[in-house]
Amino acid sequence: MKLNVAVFYGGESVEHEVSIISAHQAMNALNPEKYNVLPIYISKDQKMYYSEQLRDMNFNKNLKAVVEQCPQITIVNVDNKIVIQPVKKRLFGKNILNTIDLAIPVMHGTNGEDGTIQGFLEMMRIPYAGCDVIAAGVGQDKVLQKNILHDNGLPITNWFWVYASEIDEHPEEVLRKAHKLIYPVILKPARTGSSVGISIAHNDEEYLACFEDARQYDEKIITEKVVKPMREINCSVLGTPDHIEASVLEEVNHNSDDELLDFEDKYMRKDNNTKQEAQGMASTARIVPAPISEEATKTIQAYAIETFRVLGASGVCRIDFLMDAETNTIYINEINTIPGSLAFYLWQETNKTFAELMDALVDIALEKERKRSHMTYSYETNLLESYTSNGAKGIKK
């Protein structure tokens, strides 16, 4: 019997449109002989919509039409069945649109990749692919992430972070920290992705301007020492903390040593040879496999696996690295717990098709649910029987 696999995408994020592209790539890769694919679109105001029309990428290009023509839905647990229901009940016709056996979140950035959708799925008791709530949250918050990597002896660049309000209260102190790193430095919102709000500063004037840009997207701002000259190397990782495999590496192309790969470079490039439209993260100019030594390749793959493990990740992730082009020193940049295009292009080079990658994600989700079902989350007590409203007995201290 086929599994009903719900693919959640969209959400209130600066990466909303990227999520739509990634989700459609994933849905098209799910084997129709094994799965009934249920597209669940989450609008920018966090409402859920479901319709078979959502399988059509051209239909999704008009987001206004999507919310006007597709029924808004809610998801409920009825007698241990996960049911999709329309928000507006019908007098005639079906009020159960479908049921969900398993979910694959393909939501990038805040209010999705950061543990939000994972928490919803946990509450609904829906088996799902990818990181759990804690790993997703840590993966999105680069401050927490860097502290964990540092504490586990993994290499990261010199850095510091502050709350955005600190630049208003004592800017001199923040600038002193930047001076210790020595310009140029890179500023980032702690919890966004896709290069949004990220920029390089070469002096105090630029630093303050970059800070103002970054704080539009987050209240926590990271400042890092720029690696220059830099090579950007990425590795995808698949599995659970118990069993992890690393993909081949890619090198992302940069036109100059001091250039950031921006949103347009990542997602909106066209193939100049075939004139094809951009294909999400798969559009990024890259060299696969990365033209680096076998020793450096093995080192980066080992770092990627260890990063995945210490952050408690699962499913498919992409670990991004920075390499000093002169010294070949390697630094971990960040983990992407739901990478653009699910990093399928790296697994194709590892002789795993996109369909096989999606099969692996389903298997991982089912295995996680099997383990979860054997865990103890609560136990029976008589605490309420002994509680009295006129006393403090039974109150947690």
Topology diagram in text:
Elements: E1 3-10, H1 16-29, E2 35-42, E3 48-50, H2 57-60, H3 63-69, E4 72-78, E5 81-86, E6 98-100, E7 102-106, H4 116-124, H5 133-140, H6 142-151, E8 159-163, H7 166-169, H8 171-181, E9 185-189, E10 199-201, H9 204-214, E11 220-225, E12 230-240, E13 243-252, H10 263-267, E14 286-287, H11 294-310, E15 315-324, E16 330-336, H12 344-348, H13 354-373
Features:
397 residues; alpha+beta; Rossmann fold; D-amino Acid Aminotransferase, Chain A, domain 1; Dna Ligase, domain 1; 3 domains; seven-stranded mixed beta sheet; five-stranded antiparallel beta sheet; 13 helices; 16 strands; 31% helix; globular
How would you describe the overall organization of this protein?
The protein is an alpha+beta fold and 397 residues long. The chain has 13 helices and 16 strands. The protein has a 7-stranded mixed β-sheet with strand order 6-5-4-3-2-1-7, sandwiched between helices. Strands 14-13-12-15-16 form a 5-stranded antiparallel β-sheet.
